Structure formats: C-alpha cells, structure tokens
Amino acid sequence: MKPTTGITLPASFVVTVSLAGIEVVPTTPAEKDILTVAEVAEILKCKPSSSYNLTRHRGRARYDSPIPVLRLPMGLRFRRSSVLAWLKSRERTSAA
Length: 96
Prior knowledge:
Layout: E1 13-18, E2 21-26, H1 30-33, E3 34-35, H2 37-44, H3 48-53, E4 70-72, E5 75-79, H4 80-89
Antiparallel strand pairs: 1-2, 3-5, 4-5
C-alpha cells in the first residue's frame, strides 16, 4: 500500500472524505457550542426567565416539548445545535 502524507488542521475543522472528494469545513469552536441562559434568550429574543420556563417538564409553566438542557452544578447550559434543532421542530407551516 502506498504511504500517504497527512495534513494537519486545527481542531475546529471537520474533514469529510467520500468518493466525490475531500471536503474541509470550518466549524465553530467547542466553547461556542455551549450556551448560557442569557445567550439562549438572545437567540430566542426573549427574557432569560422565559428561557428557564421553556426547560420545564412539570409545574405551572409546563411545555410539551421543552428545550433540551444540560443541568450542571453551575447552572443550565444548552448545546447550540440542540437549541436550533428544537427551534426548527417548533416551526409550523401554514396550510395554504
């Protein structure tokens, strides 16, 4: 087998190899993938208290489809990809 030479990329890149070729896509750094309550509120354009309420499974402010949340000792954290996927799942198309 013929030896190949590799290229070194920073950790913020994803390399996909397929029969069509090689694709190098820059990604967001991992620290930007985890969001705080305030950052989620900014994305949703709401108050931080509303972001807290959207995570609830039970109680007065209960939602059938709460935002996916990481409950950590330092507070609630959210994965950007999960929040965006949740937001997309909440979209409704109008019947024309």
